Amino acid sequence: MIYDSVSTLKGVGEKTREQLENMGIHTLLDLLLYFPRGYDTYRNADEMYLNGMDKIRIEAEVTKISKPFRTRTGKTMATIWFNTEFGALKATYFNMPYITSQYKIGETYQLKGKFEKKNKFIESINPIQNRDTEEIVPVYSLEGKVTGTLIKKLVRQILEKVHINENFPEDILKHEDLIDLDSAVRNLHFPQDEELLSKSLKRMKFQEMFAYSLKIMISRSRRQEEERGIRFSMSPRLKLLKESIPFDMTNAQNRVIREILLDQKKSAPMNRLLQGDVGSGKTIVALVALFNVLENGYQAAFMAPTEILAKQHFLEAEKLLAPFGVAVRLLTGSTKKKARDEIMVQLKEGKPLLMVGTHALIEEKVQFEKLGMIITDEQHRFGVNQRAKLINKNQMSEVLVMSATPIPRTMALTIYSDLDLSVIDELPRGRKEIKTVLMDHAKRTACYKKVLDEVQKGRQAYIVTPLIDLDEESDLNSVMGLLDELSKGTLKGIPMAYLHGKMTSKEKEQVMESFKAGEIKVLISTTVIEVGINVPNASMMVIENAERFGLAQLHQLRGRVGRGEYQSYCIMIAQMKSQSTRERLEIMVKSNDGFYIAEEDLKQRGTGQLFGVHQSGHSGLMLSDLASDYELFLKANAYARTVYLGNTEEDQRMKDQFLHKLSQNLNYICLN
Ligand SMILES: Nc1ncnc2c1ncn2[C@@H]1O[C@H](COP(=O)(O)OP(=O)(O)OP(=O)(O)O)[C@@H](O)[C@H]1O
Fold it and tell me: Which ranges carry the Helicase ATP-binding domain (predicted)?
């Protein structure tokens, strides 16, 4: 019954079924496992919660409603005054012009939101009417017309009828202090109290990470038994290629190239993770490996997370490999139809092409006839999903995943345990350490004088900031705000441009190209530039509101400079309201080593940004974050190993059940 279609539920017609399926919900079990992405806890109003941070519910009577008007930045703003037991409340609503018609003077409402007691009155931004009765309100990720209320209604229907059988043996539940599966699922959708909710989360995370671990153990052993991989031979021209490279490879690069070529010679298909700190020279390693595949008469794909980066890889591939007669092509969303059609035909005919591109490469229409190797430059943007798509297309291809997000080795080995690991742990000779400074927000003018200095020396600079547009409600800096400020102030007359994710690919590309060509001296951008951009003449990275970014991300951003012969600088401007913010950012000042930073970052806050894995539905990890739940993961992983080894009857039974679900393409998170 649990694998029945959602259409068997009351209230699910054709349209709703379709929408649920778009959200990946096909069966009743899928729905049960569609857990909230978070919970809002609204406390009952109390003086001590009027701090602007706690979320509360409060009774309020309307005393005055002002007319909405437009602010300088084009937003609408409306104010409603209320009376509460704690005094007058001023509620300001941005971009909700309709709000004034929802309240009547003299009527009392229950509001929810964040409230802050100021001198004369309480203030709140965008509080809304509370219609929930429970204290802990589940928040679901929603699409189309599917609402949280609908999901709850459907889940309730299922839970009235089914009891989810326990599938872990008693002793493991006891040993790991886990509650039973049925209670966990119920409480995740309808939390009774905080304590049960946190126990339920622990149980389901354990469940997910157990299933995830078991799955990768099985796929790894299957791959190693796989005899259908391609045996590539070593091209005699590899030596010539290496000689044509204008610099000496580092020892680490040479070692990693050997590891990859050795995999290529074996009959088991390669599945390898290549890790290297920012600027350690992963691209050239990828190109050598791809060259050998083409020399064997096969096609290859080199996939990047953005168009800008794809173009950069393409140019580099062409420069290095075209002299050896390799046909390199670029395929992205902006490739013209004629060129695209031509590429499709050639790929289908089996012509050995080196395809460089974005995820356009994994569209259904692209058919590789003889795909020998896939390299994805993940940085940390790609989820496992996209990777799986390419792998499925041709199961025998070699797969190499490049990542510039260093993960401590032991952790990488457990988390990516279906991948072999290569690490470039050495930077090219002669690189100068990037001088990193942490600067308080109040002193930022000095920073831009330094930028001007560098530009006058002929160098270029990046300025990164969290927001695109100026926002009155926020104290964060924005691309447009900075452009305005700097072009009138310290950097007057300096050629500047901006870059952000809302621009079209073409626009972004044009800006990047003029920056690379040195026509633009200062580039103001959101984090879109963090991904692998290589402009050796850029020597200055300014990061505004650095407190907003994770260490791994800051390290990536900093890695955009110090890529050439010039002394480079990174200035992090931050509002250091707390000691912990300062300490966290000082790690960046202390070290330029991505592996060290990643470890510190994990210790401090266990960031989920480290891995692309958990966002992907494919991995089955909906609740867990392998980084912040790492301790629990190790336990789940160890338990998965005992089941995988199948020494007892119970373990064997569980493993068989798992394999059965896997082979039937069923959801295996709950085995029942
Ligand atoms: N052994 C080397 N000696 C000198 N320069 C090198 C060496 N290897 C690579 N480079 C150069 O270093 C720069 C950075 O290399 P690359 O773009 O491959 O870095 P990366 O590892 O991809 O880093 P990121 O993840 O930051 O993009 C390039 O300009 C490249 O040509």
Answer: 263-424
